Amino acid sequence: MEINKPRKLPIGTRIKEWGKAWGRQWQLQTMVLPGIILMIIFNFIPIYGLTLAFKSYSVTSTISSSPWVGLQNFQIIMKDKYFWQSVQNTIGISAIKLTIEFFLPIILAILIFELKWTPFKKLVQTITYLPHFLSWIILGGMLITWLSSNGMLNQVLRLFGIAANDNHILNASSYWSIASLSDVWKEAGWGTILYLATMSKIDPTYYEAAEMDGASKIRQIWSITIPEMSSIISLNLILSVSGLFNSNLDQTLVLMNSQNQPKAEVINSYVYRVGLTQGDFSYATAVGLGVSIISVILLIITNTITKKLNDNQSVL
Amino acid sequence: MKKGTMFRGLATALVTLGSVALLAGCGNGSKDSGSADKSGLPKATYKVSKDTPAWKKDKTKMTTLTWYVNADWWEKSFGKDEITKQIKKDLNVNIKFVTGDDTKLNTYFASGNMPDLVTIGDPNSKVARTANQWAYPLQDLANKYDPYFFKVARKDTLNWYKIDGKTYAYPNYSNTAADYNSGKILPRDAFIIRKDVLAGIGKQDFTTPEGFVKGMAAIKAKYPKLTPFGFNDFSGGNSSLQNVVQDMLGVPITTKANKYYDRDTDSDYIKWLDAFRQVHAAGNISDDSFTDDADTFNEKVANGNYATMMMGSDVNHGTNLQDWASKDSKGEYVAIDGIQSTVGREPTLSQAGISGWLINYISNKTKHPAKAIQVFEYLLSDKGQMLTNFGEKGKMYTQDADGMVKWTPFAKDLQLNHPQEFNKKYRIGEFILFGHDRYKALNKDSYVKAVWQMQDWGKKYLKPQFKIENIAPNPGTQEARALSAIQTNWSTTMVSLIRSKDKKSFDDTLAKYKKFQKDNNITDINKTRNDNIKANMKKLGQD
User: Which residue ranges form the domains of chain A, and what is each CATH number?
Assistant: First the structure.
């Protein structure tokens, strides 16, 4: 793209111009200052800690005094079978979660939105929100009991004449479904809030007009509700894709056991185990840094894609 | 115009205020550069004597010490209960306890603002291994301020924690070889069975793998509602099925040449794992035992859900065992001979080793080194031990001529009818930072009645394992990483072995694990372990 370059002005003049403009509104500009300072302190200065990834650090030394080791930590990552296993699990579990947890709240929100009897609507909302407010510590404990050999699931299965004696949480091959489905159950209701808020802002005259034109309920949803929500849907998609590597630490720590570990260990729990439990901070930082870089790349990719889908307008 | 000025003023004020508030938070990060110079220790302000505890002579005014305990459960109050009130009075010291986890500990180190006293739990950690960089050597402090310390501290324990010739730490519950021989250290592991079940199933032999499998089947047939075989929960490690079973079988801790011995792949032990596999295949081990957390396991013990158990650390489960015994005196658990070596070895039960449990340090940043060593000396002395274990003499306990302790009727009534007050107001047996079993053993009531028989059962089998304590490679090294991978793999492998459908998949799983060990430099790890065993033996005077 060829843009008329305002750069024709000499650099000194441009800075002067900029300074003048800034001077005219310095009161407003300085109001940003606390925010900037806050960000410098809590977001930028800690970046210095990332140098740990290239050092060999131990608790009793400081970040600056520990020796540089170059890319050694990253080389170890490349060879670390447990790390790659955890990457695989993270992506696997997140992908399932992403697919279901992206679509389900939209559908659920539309269903709730279409409910016309308010008391029932409120009841449904409350019930679906509820699990969100329980921590994984409690919920995990419940799940372990439900999925144990004499737990609720097996008892229900037995009611239907299915012989079920397995302790499901010990079964590595079913861990991905347990982890993702339980997370969907916990969060789907909560995920509807943004959508419901958006839908309540849709002008009701659209629906009235559509009804007059003889559009069915499904048609109305398809042609009015969903297009009206498109920006919030794509925003949610971007956020959840960039969170693909952000596996759920609480959930993993509660549900993981020695038998399902090969399928349950995710990047976060691995970093936690290596970094905090074993005190290998440099290595854990290197893993964290690598994951952040991949997450940023994912964020950019999804943003580009949604921009294309969204008439070249970024929602970020 | 006026409006504009007001706005400008307001904006400036807001911004300044905001920035100042933010920056103030970071202002006091100045590092204390007071270095660890040993010669820099201030002079004692009193006359130092070998025969009198220094706290009796030190007349300085009330000193406040900060004591960081790396355990969230530690009770932080000081000077409110009868015991710490007495400590405060005797030592003229006020202690401010801070508790936390590893994150907090690391923050202390990173900031350089160290507390006066530090207590940690892991002798293998980097913090413990580099103590000479951040703590005072106890010998230096004792010589300078309180030589009576050498009278109350155990020489073996001091030797054990030496780094380059000086000791930086003193742990609680550190058992020396003399303690093991004294008979005052009680075992804590046993194969236990419900008394009613034992009587109900007729004669069974739980000592051999074949008999064990048969015995469990007999229990299942007679008591279908009970789970025949149970073991400790897996939440904190590999339950009682690893070390505890190996100790029961007397699996050696080193080779004859004092080299590292891989107890996990010992053939005797593997034979027993195979027996557990058969028990599991017959449905006599519940899969839930592998996923139960500590609370669930405790509940099952307190309800007598298991017919038999490989019980690790019965003392820690004493309350639950006692609960069950009081609910159903006929079904009380008793220890019997079971799970024994197939090659004729005797059990070698272990207990807290010479490394102890919680490890106490005096930071070299402390401004009150004299008071700090006095605290150590006081708590280690007879006076301190009797106080923290039993409270005030006469009021809470009486002592016989042979040294044995009995609760007074007052204390007994308190313990029985007002346990809250017993714990809160009197804090009996709770201030354990320098605790030791040899004092606990002075009073039979230190342990609940339900475990007495179990302790008696194992008394003759206690054997120290000092040689192999803390022999793992240094954290952060390639060997440490490989070892952690191997241990993770073993946890999965061990449970998989027991849950194998048949002998063939059992053997395959085991072979896979052995290959995994090889692929992860087990030989390098074992070399480090061998070196560490050698160093340990030198410290123990066994070389």
Answer: 77-309 (1.10.3720.10)
